[in-house]
Specification:
Helix content is 39%, strand content 18%. With 174 residues, it is an alpha/beta fold. The longest helix is centred in the middle third of the chain and has 19 residues, at 103-121.
Length: 174
Amino acid sequence: VLTDQSLSAKDGDYRTLITQIKKSNPESKFVNLGIAQIGPFLRQLKEQGIGKPVFSNFWSAKKDVLSVAGDAAEGVLFSEMSLAEMPKFQKEIAAAGGGHASGATLSAYVATKLLLQAAQALKSDRSSTALYQALLAQPSVVLTDLSLKIKDRVVEFPLVMKVIKDGRSVPSPF
């Protein structure tokens, strides 16, 4: 890591930062910005002649980002949850009227389930402090209905690498 910069959500002109990045001549860039920032940042990277590879978060594949970034998004790599590996979860969400499940759906489900498990472990003190401590005390477990492992309080979600190609996200060859 050559540099780690923070930006304000209000920032829109990234030329100064991009000039610094260009001077450091990194082998790759990881861009972890919000939806409103990624498109302009990618466009300004291209305008200043900074090439690929660029790694980002899954927001880089959102329509709003792609419309702003245009062809500057081509080749951007990102990972996202692979719900294809979880057909049972997909079917249950659809059957409950939830439509097509997304990574956000899965994250919310897991977070809610872990909170409920921690709350059930509490006998009498249900304060936010006690609930937080119960969450921290949870051992490594498997969410059996999802076959997701949790180790050291980290959920091991199935991930897949994707790339922006022809204005849409497709599985990455890497």
